[in-house]
Amino acid sequence: MQRVLLLSDSAAYVSAVESTLRVEDVLLRQERSLVGGLVVVREWRPSLLLLDLGLPLDGGPGEAAGRTGVTGGGLAALLRDPAIEGAASVLAIAAPEQLALLGPGVTVQDFIVPPLDDEELRVRVLRALWHDGGDGDTVLRRGGVVIDLERYTVTVDGDVVDLTYKEYELLAFLAGSPGRPFTRETLLDRVWGYDYYGGARTVDVHVRRIRSKIEGRRQYIETVRNVGYRFIES
Question: How many domains does the chain have?
Protein backbone atom coordinates (compact mmCIF):
# COMPACT_ATOMS: atom_id res chain seq x y z
CA MET A 1 0.00 0.00 0.00
CA GLN A 2 1.37 3.40 -1.02
CA ARG A 3 1.94 5.98 1.72
CA VAL A 4 0.81 9.59 1.25
CA LEU A 5 1.83 12.34 3.65
CA LEU A 6 -0.25 15.53 3.67
CA LEU A 7 1.59 18.55 5.07
CA SER A 8 -1.18 21.03 5.81
CA ASP A 9 -3.03 22.72 8.65
CA SER A 10 -6.05 23.45 6.45
CA ALA A 11 -9.18 21.63 7.56
CA ALA A 12 -10.62 22.06 4.06
CA TYR A 13 -7.59 20.43 2.41
CA VAL A 14 -7.53 17.58 4.91
CA SER A 15 -11.22 16.90 4.38
CA ALA A 16 -10.88 16.97 0.59
CA VAL A 17 -7.86 14.66 0.53
CA GLU A 18 -9.38 12.18 2.99
CA SER A 19 -12.64 12.06 1.03
CA THR A 20 -10.90 11.65 -2.33
CA LEU A 21 -8.40 8.97 -1.32
CA ARG A 22 -10.68 6.93 0.94
CA VAL A 23 -11.42 4.39 -1.80
CA GLU A 24 -7.87 4.23 -3.19
CA ASP A 25 -5.17 1.78 -2.17
CA VAL A 26 -3.20 4.36 -0.17
CA LEU A 27 -2.36 5.01 3.46
CA LEU A 28 -2.83 8.69 4.37
CA ARG A 29 -1.19 10.61 7.19
CA GLN A 30 -1.32 14.31 8.08
CA GLU A 31 1.29 16.56 9.64
CA ARG A 32 0.53 20.18 10.53
CA SER A 33 4.05 21.63 10.34
CA LEU A 34 6.87 21.44 7.80
CA VAL A 35 9.47 20.81 10.48
CA GLY A 36 7.40 17.96 11.91
CA GLY A 37 6.78 16.77 8.37
CA LEU A 38 10.50 16.26 7.75
CA VAL A 39 10.67 14.03 10.81
CA VAL A 40 7.72 11.99 9.55
CA VAL A 41 9.25 11.70 6.06
CA ARG A 42 12.48 10.28 7.52
CA GLU A 43 10.69 7.80 9.77
CA TRP A 44 7.59 6.89 7.73
CA ARG A 45 9.09 7.20 4.21
CA PRO A 46 6.01 8.12 2.17
CA SER A 47 5.84 7.61 -1.59
CA LEU A 48 4.10 10.95 -2.09
CA LEU A 49 4.28 14.25 -0.26
CA LEU A 50 1.21 16.50 -0.62
CA LEU A 51 2.74 19.88 0.23
CA ASP A 52 0.49 22.80 1.14
CA LEU A 53 2.50 25.90 0.16
CA GLY A 54 0.32 27.95 2.51
CA LEU A 55 1.86 26.21 5.50
CA PRO A 56 4.43 28.38 7.35
CA LEU A 57 7.92 26.90 7.62
CA ASP A 58 7.90 27.13 11.41
CA GLY A 59 4.39 25.80 11.90
CA GLY A 60 3.06 29.33 12.46
CA PRO A 61 -0.07 30.30 14.35
CA GLY A 62 -2.36 28.13 12.26
CA GLU A 63 -4.99 28.52 9.59
CA ALA A 64 -7.29 30.81 11.52
CA ALA A 65 -4.60 33.44 12.05
CA GLY A 66 -3.83 33.82 8.36
CA ARG A 67 -1.59 31.81 6.08
CA THR A 68 1.51 33.56 4.78
CA GLY A 69 3.02 30.30 3.52
CA VAL A 70 6.54 29.25 2.63
CA THR A 71 9.02 31.54 0.90
CA GLY A 72 10.94 30.62 -2.23
CA GLY A 73 14.11 30.08 -0.20
CA GLY A 74 12.25 28.00 2.37
CA LEU A 75 10.73 25.80 -0.33
CA ALA A 76 14.10 25.27 -2.02
CA ALA A 77 15.71 24.31 1.28
CA LEU A 78 12.87 21.92 2.05
CA LEU A 79 13.11 20.17 -1.33
CA ARG A 80 16.90 19.82 -0.98
CA ASP A 81 16.55 17.96 2.29
CA PRO A 82 17.88 14.40 1.83
CA ALA A 83 14.70 13.03 3.38
CA ILE A 84 12.71 14.40 0.43
CA GLU A 85 15.17 14.73 -2.45
CA GLY A 86 15.01 11.56 -4.51
CA ALA A 87 12.93 9.75 -1.89
CA ALA A 88 9.37 10.95 -2.48
CA SER A 89 7.34 12.58 -5.24
CA VAL A 90 6.01 16.00 -4.35
CA LEU A 91 2.56 17.31 -5.31
CA ALA A 92 2.15 20.95 -4.28
CA ILE A 93 -1.11 22.61 -3.31
CA ALA A 94 -0.55 26.16 -4.52
CA ALA A 95 -2.88 29.16 -4.43
CA PRO A 96 -2.68 31.38 -7.54
CA GLU A 97 -0.41 33.88 -5.77
CA GLN A 98 2.00 31.06 -4.89
CA LEU A 99 2.50 29.71 -8.43
CA ALA A 100 5.58 31.88 -8.86
CA LEU A 101 7.32 29.62 -6.33
CA LEU A 102 7.07 26.71 -8.78
CA GLY A 103 9.41 28.05 -11.42
CA PRO A 104 12.11 26.25 -13.42
CA GLY A 105 14.44 24.14 -11.32
CA VAL A 106 11.94 23.53 -8.53
CA THR A 107 11.77 19.76 -8.02
CA VAL A 108 8.01 19.45 -7.64
CA GLN A 109 6.46 16.76 -9.83
CA ASP A 110 3.03 18.40 -10.09
CA PHE A 111 0.74 20.96 -8.47
CA ILE A 112 -2.95 21.65 -7.99
CA VAL A 113 -4.70 24.97 -7.41
CA PRO A 114 -7.45 25.21 -4.77
CA PRO A 115 -10.33 24.89 -4.32
CA LEU A 116 -9.55 21.18 -4.62
CA ASP A 117 -11.70 19.35 -7.14
CA ASP A 118 -12.16 15.72 -6.06
CA GLU A 119 -11.60 14.12 -9.47
CA GLU A 120 -8.65 16.33 -10.41
CA LEU A 121 -7.03 15.66 -7.04
CA ARG A 122 -7.54 11.91 -7.40
CA VAL A 123 -6.02 11.82 -10.89
CA ARG A 124 -3.02 13.97 -9.95
CA VAL A 125 -2.29 11.92 -6.83
CA LEU A 126 -2.49 8.61 -8.70
CA ARG A 127 -0.33 9.92 -11.54
CA ALA A 128 2.30 11.04 -9.03
CA LEU A 129 2.21 7.71 -7.20
CA TRP A 130 2.42 5.49 -10.27
CA HIS A 131 4.35 7.81 -12.54
CA ASP A 132 6.53 5.82 -14.93
CA GLY A 133 8.61 8.77 -16.02
CA GLY A 134 10.52 9.42 -19.24
CA ASP A 135 14.03 8.56 -20.31
CA GLY A 136 15.49 10.86 -17.67
CA ASP A 137 13.57 9.37 -14.79
CA THR A 138 15.65 7.20 -12.45
CA VAL A 139 12.88 5.90 -10.19
CA LEU A 140 10.37 3.16 -10.98
CA ARG A 141 7.23 3.16 -8.83
CA ARG A 142 5.13 0.02 -9.05
CA GLY A 143 2.47 -0.10 -6.37
CA GLY A 144 4.36 -0.33 -3.09
CA VAL A 145 7.65 -1.15 -4.83
CA VAL A 146 10.04 1.75 -5.49
CA ILE A 147 13.20 1.02 -7.48
CA ASP A 148 15.87 3.73 -7.58
CA LEU A 149 17.83 3.00 -10.75
CA GLU A 150 20.51 5.53 -9.87
CA ARG A 151 21.17 4.43 -6.30
CA TYR A 152 20.48 0.71 -6.88
CA THR A 153 18.03 0.57 -3.99
CA VAL A 154 14.61 -1.03 -3.59
CA THR A 155 11.94 -0.27 -1.01
CA VAL A 156 8.58 -1.95 -0.46
CA ASP A 157 5.94 0.08 1.39
CA GLY A 158 8.79 2.31 2.57
CA ASP A 159 10.98 -0.51 3.92
CA VAL A 160 14.41 -1.10 2.38
CA VAL A 161 14.81 -4.52 0.75
CA ASP A 162 18.21 -6.22 0.67
CA LEU A 163 18.69 -7.75 -2.79
CA THR A 164 21.74 -9.23 -4.46
CA TYR A 165 22.91 -7.47 -7.62
CA LYS A 166 21.34 -10.03 -9.96
CA GLU A 167 18.09 -10.06 -7.95
CA TYR A 168 18.01 -6.27 -8.29
CA GLU A 169 18.72 -6.39 -12.03
CA LEU A 170 16.02 -9.02 -12.64
CA LEU A 171 13.44 -7.12 -10.60
CA ALA A 172 14.24 -3.83 -12.33
CA PHE A 173 14.00 -5.47 -15.76
CA LEU A 174 10.61 -7.04 -15.06
CA ALA A 175 9.25 -3.89 -13.38
CA GLY A 176 10.39 -1.82 -16.36
CA SER A 177 7.71 -3.46 -18.51
CA PRO A 178 4.76 -4.20 -16.21
CA GLY A 179 2.21 -6.62 -17.65
CA ARG A 180 4.58 -7.92 -20.33
CA PRO A 181 5.55 -11.62 -20.01
CA PHE A 182 9.15 -12.67 -20.61
CA THR A 183 10.45 -16.16 -21.28
CA ARG A 184 13.17 -17.57 -19.06
CA GLU A 185 15.51 -17.56 -22.06
CA THR A 186 14.89 -13.86 -22.67
CA LEU A 187 15.50 -13.05 -19.01
CA LEU A 188 18.74 -15.04 -19.05
CA ASP A 189 19.88 -13.16 -22.14
CA ARG A 190 18.87 -9.67 -20.93
CA VAL A 191 19.93 -9.96 -17.29
CA TRP A 192 22.78 -12.51 -17.28
CA GLY A 193 24.04 -11.97 -20.83
CA TYR A 194 24.08 -14.04 -23.99
CA ASP A 195 27.30 -15.82 -22.99
CA TYR A 196 25.91 -17.12 -19.70
CA TYR A 197 25.86 -20.91 -19.67
CA GLY A 198 23.44 -21.47 -16.79
CA GLY A 199 20.01 -22.97 -17.35
CA ALA A 200 16.46 -21.68 -16.89
CA ARG A 201 16.47 -22.85 -13.29
CA THR A 202 18.72 -19.86 -12.50
CA VAL A 203 15.80 -17.56 -13.31
CA ASP A 204 13.38 -19.61 -11.22
CA VAL A 205 15.67 -19.51 -8.20
CA HIS A 206 16.17 -15.75 -8.42
CA VAL A 207 12.45 -15.07 -8.90
CA ARG A 208 11.66 -17.21 -5.87
CA ARG A 209 14.17 -15.27 -3.76
CA ILE A 210 12.84 -11.91 -4.95
CA ARG A 211 9.28 -12.95 -4.15
CA SER A 212 10.28 -14.00 -0.64
CA LYS A 213 11.70 -10.51 -0.06
CA ILE A 214 9.06 -8.22 -1.62
CA GLU A 215 5.73 -10.08 -1.49
CA GLY A 216 4.84 -10.02 2.17
CA ARG A 217 1.53 -8.18 1.63
CA ARG A 218 0.73 -8.57 -2.06
CA GLN A 219 1.91 -10.35 -5.18
CA TYR A 220 4.07 -8.45 -7.66
CA ILE A 221 5.58 -11.12 -9.92
CA GLU A 222 3.32 -13.58 -11.72
CA THR A 223 4.24 -16.90 -13.29
CA VAL A 224 2.91 -17.14 -16.85
CA ARG A 225 2.32 -20.80 -17.60
CA ASN A 226 4.45 -22.23 -20.39
CA VAL A 227 6.07 -18.81 -20.89
CA GLY A 228 7.95 -17.35 -17.93
CA TYR A 229 7.30 -14.37 -15.67
CA ARG A 230 5.86 -10.88 -15.69
CA PHE A 231 5.58 -8.01 -13.25
CA ILE A 232 1.91 -7.46 -12.43
CA GLU A 233 0.48 -4.12 -13.55
CA SER A 234 -0.73 -1.93 -10.67
Answer: 2
Q: Following CA atoms 136, 142, 143, 144 in sequence, which dihedral angle do they give, to the nearest 10 degrees? A: -90
Residue 29 lies in a domain: yes
Q: Are residues 98 and 117 in the same domain?
A: yes
SS3 string, the chain, reads CEEEEEECCCHHHHHHHHHHHCCCCEEEEEECCHHHHHHHHHHHCCCEEEEECCCCCCCCCCHHHCCCCCCHHHHHHHHHCCCCCCCCEEEEECCHHHHHHHCCCCCCCEEECCCCCHHHHHHHHHHHHCCCCCCCCCEEEECCEEEECCCCEEEECCEECCCCHHHHHHHHHHHCCCCCCEEHHHHHHHHHCCCCCCCCHHHHHHHHHHHHHHCCCCCCEEEECCCEEEECCC
* Domain coverage including residue 52: 2-129
Residue 134: inside a domain: no
The pLDDT > 70 percentage for the chain reads 87
pLDDT of residue 137: 58
Rg of the chain (C-alpha set) = 20
* Residue predicted with more confidence, 105 or 208: 208
We report the CATH number of the domain holding residue 43 as 3.40.50.2300
Examine the pLDDT at 177 and tell me if it is beyond 50. Answer: yes
Q: Is residue 56 part of a domain?
A: yes
